[in-house]
Amino acid sequence: MAKTDDHAQLYVRFHAAVNMAPAEIEAWLDTDESRAVGFRRDGASESVGHASGRRIVQILRTRKADLDGGDYAHMRKVVGFVRRHLAQGPHEAHRIPGSRWRHSLMNWGHDPLKD
Predict the structure, then answer these.
(1) How many domains does the chain have?
(2) Does pLDDT of 1 surpass 80?
(3) Which of 17, 20, 94, 99 is the most exposed place for a label (fewest CB within 10 A)?
């Protein structure tokens, strides 16, 4: 498969996985709940997911023609994270709204309550 074909498919999968608008993600990332979840590398001031959310906003605001290999690599990471995390989470609707599971997904641009 050609790289451009792979990028085209990844672009579609990324936009299916990320169901929050850039402004929604930014507003979410400003909350205490957003900063309270996720894995932090030693010495890091923010979680991996929180940093990912900032990168997702940048990607969403970039024209498709201007996306580079690093952007596509991050898009692949986002798609994988959202898919894995959705499979793991609480599947009882009453447990989802305030859960750390949902908050973590939202850091990655996906709000499961929109599904």
Answers:
(1) 1
(2) no
(3) 94
Task: Name, in order, each residue with C-beta under 8 angstroms of 15's C-beta and a sequence gap of 6 or more.
Answer: none
**Residue 83 CB partners (closer than 8 Å, separation 6+):** 17
Any idea what DSSP says for residue 114? G
Residue 74 CB partners (closer than 8 Å, separation 6+)? 52, 55, 56, 59
* Residue closest to 7 by CA, chosen among 57, 54, 73: 73
Contact in structure between 115 and 83 (CB atoms under 8 Å)? no
On the 0-12 / 13-18 / 19+ scale of CB atoms within 10 A, 67 is middle
Structural domain that includes position 68 = 3-114
Per-residue burial over 27-56, b if 16 or more Cβ lie within 10 Å, else e, is ebbeeeebeebbeeeeeeebbbbbbbbebb
Question: pTM above the 0.85 mark?
Answer: yes
- Range 68-75 average pLDDT: 96
